[in-house]
Amino acid sequence: MSALEPDELARLLSEAVEPVRPSPDAYRRIQAGVARRRRWRLPAYTAGGMVMAALIALAVVAIRPSPSNQVVEPAAPPVMPTNYTAPAVPGTAPVPGRSGQGGGTAGTSGGAGSASHAPTTTVTPRSSVAASTPTTPTASPSQPPASVSPPPGGLDSPQLPTPTAKPAGVNDIDGDGRPDTVGVAADGTTLQIEFSRDNQVAKIPLPAISAPLNSAVVDIDGDGFGELLVQTRASNGVKSYALLRYVSLDQVVVMALPDGLALSAGVRGNVATGLRCGDHVLQIASGTSTDGSQFTVTTTTLDLTVDGLSSADTASSTVRLPTDTSPFVASCGALS
Known about the structure:
The strands form 3 sheets. Strands 7, 8, 9, 10, 11, 12, 13, 14, 15 and 16 form a 10-stranded mixed sheet that branches. By secondary structure, this protein is of the alpha+beta class. The protein has helices spanning 6-17, 24-63, and strands at residues 94-99, 102-105, 122-125, 181-184, 190-194, 200-205, 215-218, 227-235, 238-248, 251-254, 264-268, 271-277, 281-289, 294-305, 308-320, 330-331. Helix content is 15%, strand content 31%. Strand 12 and strand 13 (281-289) form a beta hairpin.
């Protein structure tokens, strides 16, 4: 091998170490490769994502327990309230009320005792009053008249007619603006009310009715329908009364008082009672004495509502008879 010339050796060394300078054609080939990789990148990513999602779904299905392996606890039965229904009392009867939803049930109450049968109300045309014979309940002479609580209702009840005025006029029970007629049947224990609204007659059996008839019509609650007070008996200076209320067309019921109260007026030894009709209330006075002269008086104020008579207030006082004005009288309308 012949030795290289110094110039030839320098040229070869320069070509070996000189950086490669790409040509324009090489740039074009590089850009084309980059573009090809960019076009395939998006489809590849999409396909990879779909494959990954499918794998995840398969994993969820594979590890999810089957319905047959699930334990379902049965639902506890609902707790139903226990409602006690009192047994029916012989002699009671449903009474139509002031509410279109139904009537109440007749009952008995009183101060010293109660009647053996609850009164019911029947309505017959005027022409058949004389020919009909009502059933008379039996009662002890010492017992006050039987009474029943009027069922719930209201002035907007479809069973009630529309009153012409509030309060009701003189002797107007049915609220038509004209007086109604109150009488006693031939048996002496059946009260008859002839309504001027439609000439119908309501017959209400009572344990007793005083003779001659002593009654008064007072619109205590001011609803346009008059309440009827009837004296039932008089014994040893004490008069007993029944309070009747108009509850629907041609229907009246005898109202019940709270326990321990009685509709009576008078003085018997060291015990005395009285009643007074006030502004939308009924007041019952009960007095006791040790000498028959000075009485300790308890006055109970009763509200007359659609549900009946309810105790609203109680007051105490002292009176000396005959010096002071006696509260032991019946002071209601014509009974004053």
